């Protein structure tokens, strides 16, 4: 637990609990939000191959997960932690150019 606190730059066990809660709530919420978006886009199992459907479903879920992670983190008072995590993730996948003015 101490290694995780040191790696993430946090000080209390309570903050770790809150961060884990945010991760779990965000996972469920991203699928909850993603499903209607998939339907709105007209993506369903009947008009696509199952593999393509699931790839798109996971992709849409991933996008909403990233957005909701920051929003839900803000509701739990952990915006700075999740925004820093999001910036690192965007840089790792090559989308750091969106953050030119934000270091």
Number of helices: 4
The low-pLDDT segments are none
Radius of gyration: 16 Å
Q: How many beta-strand elements?
A: 0
What's the order of the H and E elements?
Answer: HHHH
The average pLDDT score comes to 88
Characterize the main sheet.
none
Rough shape? elongated
Residues in helices, as a percent range: over 70%
Strand residue percentage? under 5%
Return the structural class: mainly alpha
Distance between the termini: 28 Å
Task: Describe it.
By secondary structure, the protein is mostly helical. It has a domain of about 60 residues. It is built from 4 helices and no strands. α2 crosses α3 and α3 packs antiparallel against α4. The chain starts with a helix and ends in an 11-residue tail after the last helix. The mean pLDDT is about 90.
Characteristics of this structure?
73% helix; elongated; mainly alpha; 4 helices; 0% strand; 103 residues; single chain
How would you summarize the topology of this molecule?
Elements: H1 2-8, H2 13-40, H3 50-75, H4 79-92
């Amino acid at each position: 637990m101490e290694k995780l606190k040191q790696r993430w730059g946090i000080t209390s066990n309570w903050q770790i609990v809150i961060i884990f809660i945010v991760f779990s709530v965000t996972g469920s919420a991203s699928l909850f939000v993603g499903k209607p978006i998939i339907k709105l886009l007209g993506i369903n199992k009947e008009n696509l191959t199952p593999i393509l459907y699931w790839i798109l479903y996971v992709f849409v879920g991933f996008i909403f997960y990233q957005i909701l992670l920051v929003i839900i983190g803000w509701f739990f008072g952990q915006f700075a932690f999740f925004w820093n995590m999001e910036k690192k993730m965007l840089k790792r996948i090559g989308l750091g150019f969106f953050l030119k003015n934000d270091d």
